[in-house]
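Q:
My hope is that you can spare some time for a protein that puzzles me. I hope you can help me see how the letters and the tokens relate. Thank you; the sequence and its tokens follow:
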Amino acid sequence: MKQNSTSMFQQTQPIHMTLVLKSFVFSKAMKSLWMFMGLILSMLFCATFANAAQVQNAQVGQIFKQLSTTPTVRANFQQQKKLAALNKTFVSNGTVLFSKQYGVLWQIQKPVQASLIVTPKKLVQKTQRTYSQIEIDKSPYGSVATMFLQLMSGNETALAKNFNIVSAHYSPTQWDVTLTPKSSLFKKLFDRVEAQGQRYVDRIVITEKANNSTVIQFSQHNPQPAQLTASEDALFKLAQ
């Protein structure tokens, strides 16, 4: 019985070793297959990501190209400023003039009358009784003030210095773009800026810290007259 048992073990040992060897070879083959599939998936992901980035870049280019074609635009605006801590929303309205050559002129009519002039050099606020100005390059908040000028003029290069363009969608009838701040200073002020429009900028939403937000809605856009009026020209000269 002992001889038979030993003989049987000797007979089954090669079979067992063959199975182990086959299992080992199969395991290595599967590992190689998984590595190959992982490489293919990585390549596909990179290609998809690159294509998506190219598509987005193309759409961003179309948006800013469209915005840059109009030298002068006038519109009405309404701003809703939400302060979560006070549980209140403050509403102001008036008119806005964008001039690619000079800057942006906000003429607030309610709740108070005031003019806010933004140029690449200065930010000027004027009321019937007060006057103040800030030089853009000497103020850490200057880039925030000029953001509207850069956006409305389609100046992608200037805008990209302070903001990341995280998403963009364009069609002939509608477009939108989302920006996030780059600098630590701006990150303390707000999380993102979303702009939407058709031919012009129709809506800007600024999501701020502490659940605050600012929504600016534009309406009744008009590219005429292309020249500034005497009063508009006088206000822009204050910020030269």
